[in-house]
Design goal:
CATH superfamily: Leucine Aminopeptidase, subunit E, domain 1
Radius of gyration: 15 Å
Strand order of the largest sheet: 1-6-5-2-4-3
Number of domains: 1
CATH class: Alpha Beta
Helix content: 25-40%
Order of helices and strands: EEHHEEHEHEH
Strand content: 15-25%
Shape: globular
Bound molecules: ligand AR6
Largest sheet: 6 strands, mixed
Distance between the termini: 19 Å
Structural class: alpha/beta
CATH topology: Leucine Aminopeptidase, subunit E, domain 1
Number of strands: 6
């Protein structure tokens, strides 16, 4: 498969996508919150919360997988991004780890298509440019070495993020 068609950026709501897995920007409890986390729990239904109760939370930079329930996506990969504190608390490494651990789960579950929101770029205040650069670099590195996932979709919720990803993927 050509490298070029393994990445895409779209603007919209990640919960509506027909992909094998969507990634959730969760918190350490994995029991829901605001932003994309709230939207995913609402769309997937209460069965998701029930499954998350048994996961015993998740460390920052790590990821855990659940079923997608009422979503079109078969799986949800929950990853916990770092809160931005100015860059002095390993935030860039922790965000890179979110992408690495999510992609590893995708590989283990033979997930063909995966969609990522901009992890940490909302309530956790990570600078959008830097977050997108990490997202694109980590996924490109992983995909170049592995057959799964076959396709990575970056989902921008706003025009600013859309333009940032579009420019990075053009390079
Ligand atoms: N589809 C795609 N992207 C979205 C959607 C959506 N439906 N809704 C928001 N975004 P955030 P974080 C974008 O705050 O910064 C939660 O309360 C949004 O524009 O959801 O990682 C958790 O429980 C932004 O670019 O996640 C945690 O407590 C990106 O998704 C905390 O927020 C992430 O914004 C995690 O903060």
């Amino acid at each position: 498969m050509k490298k070029k068609c393994r990445f895409e950026v779209i603007k919209g709501d990640i919960t509506s996508l027909e992909v094998d897995a969507i990634v959730n920007a969760a918190n350490n409890s994995l029991l829901g919150g605001g932003g994309v986390d709230r939207a995913i729990h609402k769309a997937a239904g209460p069965e998701l919360y029930e499954e998350c109760l048994n996961l015993d939370g998740c460390a920052t930079g790590e990821s855990k997988i659940t079923k997608g329930y009422r979503l079109k996506a078969k799986y949800i990969i929950h990853t916990v991004g770092p809160v931005w504190h100015g860059g002095y608390r390993d935030e860039t490494d922790l965000l890179a780890s979110c992408y690495q651990t999510s992609l590893k789960l995708a590989y283990q579950h033979k997930i063909k298509t995966i969609a990522f929101p901009g992890i940490s770029t909302g309530a956790y205040r990570f600078p959008k440019d830097l977050a997108a650069l990490i997202a694109v670099n980590e996924t490109k590195r992983f995909v170049s070495k592995n057959n799964y996932p076959e396709k990575v979709i970056f989902v921008a919720f706003d025009q600013e993020n859309y333009e940032i990803y579009r420019k990075l993927l053009e390079k």
